[in-house]
Amino acid sequence: MASKNVDGKTIILGLQHTFVMFGATVLVPILTGLDIGVTLFAAGIGTLLFHVVTKFKVPVFLGSSFAFIPGLVAVGASEGLPYALGGIFVAGLLYIVVAIIFKFVKYENLHKILPPHVTGPMIIMIGLILAPVAIQNANGTNSPAIAEAIGTNGCWLIALITFAIGIFVKIGFPKFGWKFVSNLPVLISLILGYLVSVIIGIVDFSAVSDAAWIGFPKFTFPKFSVSAITIMVPIAIVTMVEHFGDVLAIGNVVGKDFIKDPGIHRTLIGDGLATSLSALIGGPANTTYSENTGAVALTGVYNPVVMRIAALFAILLSLVPKFTALIGTIPGPVIGGISILLFGMISSIGIKNMVDAKVNLSNPKLLIISASMLVLGLGGATFQLGKVNLSGLGLAAIFGVVLNLILRPKDITKEEG
Question: What number is the average pLDDT over the span 393-407?
């Protein structure tokens, strides 16, 4: 989108998306030992690259992928993180190979493989799989020091205050004529929830005082080994299936078919190139972020330029360690409170997708496909095939696609009247 359409309001909306992605994006390097600054820089550059490849049409932000964490930890312990990065680099190239194949698959055939009774449960699961993370943040499980200081009930109080502020901003502010402000429920609720936390005295500023004002990320180049590649590359099979779900989810939010335009092959190439570029400079694999999709649904602002502004903020943050540390002091209960809204919004979109498609759930075959996917995806089922470990959304999605091709249900939609 042209720069003339970028104003102060758009910049603030972009900053909001930076806050939305920040917590999950920096959690991956915290858990694996990668550099936080490099991770933010890679997320920003990767998002911009994705938008170039997808013709600036898809309002998506690319952040750190959690799916690669087990591989990063395993290879990092046995061979070192540079070799894990090498495996991620090759995994990103696999996206491009698959994208080229999909380029020659007819659009109609893609929708036969991924009908609404398969894609709907996929989108529902994206939100519900993330639900425990929201609750663990809200109740203090992920913030033991805060939970010890104010107790579980205190954590829930902060989370519910943040949650309530988000609802009031979105629903109440338009009644006062503050339409633009109502598009900032995430940013405003995070700021006010943070201020409440500061007043209570549960924010630790020690990391902020120790951090420098300006600092370049510690870029690391990958190394390559056959063993690391065989561990990391199969994970891309799962993340590519998740990619389909995320693209479908944001398409349903916006009301556009991004599978058709700009095309799933372009979104896959953008995701793959971003992942390989990230690994090339020492960052984790990137993936389309459900958190930001939830924020798009909550705010109703679909302009893709907002995500590109968020990407620029991520790059700037990577160069300012002190501000990065400040953002990192946002208490878990505050993040949990707004996450309840964001993650639930994604699942609700999946339900809306099935309703809009008039999926005939009186058809037992459709019920079997949807029910099986939900149980496998949410129940923690895993399937080991050689070095490939399928679980969660990836396993459920593959199972749903295969089961749909086997059962070949008819009367998919329900006629009105």
Answer: 85
